[in-house]
Design brief:
mainly alpha, globular, disordered N terminus
Length: 312
């Protein structure tokens, strides 16, 4: 069974006789929003899961094993479904996706979380929607409306103010890693979103993960040999989530969502990600949260609603 991810193309379901099913704009937009929101939810657990993973693994071991596991799962799915490799012209974009979301962001954020709390890391991650929208505008030539940018800036400002207040307003050296992760991840999101318009979203991240296997497998062996590690319950749970939930499943639904509603609008749903991360930080890691959380959540939700209605 094959399905086209783009909301602008007909869907072909191969079960016996091919059938063409037209998609309505309203249904496609609603589905795209739900898929992108599911991706954001998966991503919001990444920092707490990484903190758990660091309970039993070193940073290089955690990142390389995470990448290897996700690549093996993706490769198994592609092989089982007999998916043909992408056309030659797509491999350059896949390299950007791999560098941004498979290698760069996981590595830099994991290094940052050795000394930074998850709430502090969310300060920089709150800037990701604006960065992604800006890079998307430069890369694709699409210019969102003034209303879109105003709501996006207000939402980002609300998230930054809240997360800085949560972390005590202090910046650490880990922010250098986080700012680098922010830029490279936005580039990966932008290029992946473009590819997801011409090929299924899970193929995008699947082939990007497979392309990293020649690096991930030997890196895992070297890292595990040189860093101490222990298979605690938290470490294994965190590793499995970042490998399967964040690195594969979350990116599959995220890219499908971006293909349906567009990169700038999908990126604004990530305004809710730092708030969700703080919720998980409280419930899973025992970090504290102030009374400002409900007010900030309402402000962010209003901004998200405006960006979804603004015409790009």
């Amino acid at each position: 069974m094959t399905a086209q991810d783009s909301a602008t193309r007909p869907t072909t379901i191969a079960v016996g006789t091919p059938v063409t099913v037209p998609s309505t704009g309203c249904d496609s937009t609603r589905t795209g929003i739900l898929l992108a929101a599911a991706g954001v939810t998966a991503f919001s657990l990444t920092f707490p899961a990484t903190a758990w993973g660091l309970d039993g693994f070193g940073p290089w071991s955690l990142v390389s094993v995470r990448m290897a596991l996700a690549g093996l799962i993706a490769g198994g799915c592609l092989l089982a479904l007999r998916i043909k490799p992408p056309a030659r012209e797509h491999w350059g974009s896949l390299a950007v996706v791999a560098a941004g979301v498979v290698i760069g962001f996981p590595l830099l954020t994991t290094l940052a979380l050795q000394t930074s709390t998850t709430s502090h890391a969310a300060v920089v991650v709150g800037l990701l929607p604006l960065t992604t929208a800006a890079l998307s505008a430069l890369r694709t030539g699409v210019r969102p409306s003034r209303t879109f940018w105003t709501a996006a800036c207000l939402g980002a400002a609300a998230v930054i103010a809240f997360t800085v207040q949560q972390s005590g307003g202090a910046l650490t050296t880990a922010d250098l890693y986080l700012f680098g992760a922010l830029l490279i991840c936005a580039a990966g999101y932008t290029e992946g979103g473009r590819l997801a318009r011409v090929m299924p979203g899970w193929h995008v991240i699947g082939w990007a993960l497979v392309a990293c296997l020649p690096l991930a497998l030997p890196a895992s062996a070297v890292a595990l040999a040189h860093e101490p590690w222990e298979l605690t319950a938290k470490a294994v749970t965190g590793l499995l989530w970042v490998a399967v939930g964040s690195q594969f499943v979350g990116l599959v639904v995220w890219y499908r969502g971006m293909a349906a509603i567009g990169i700038p609008k999908a990126s604004q749903l990530q305004l809710a990600q730092p708030l969700l991360t703080l919720v998980w930080s409280v419930s899973l890691l025992g970090e504290s949260m102030t009374a400002a959380a409900p007010l900030t959540a309402v402000a962010v939700l209003i901004c998200i609603a405006v960006t979804q209605r603004a015409r790009g």
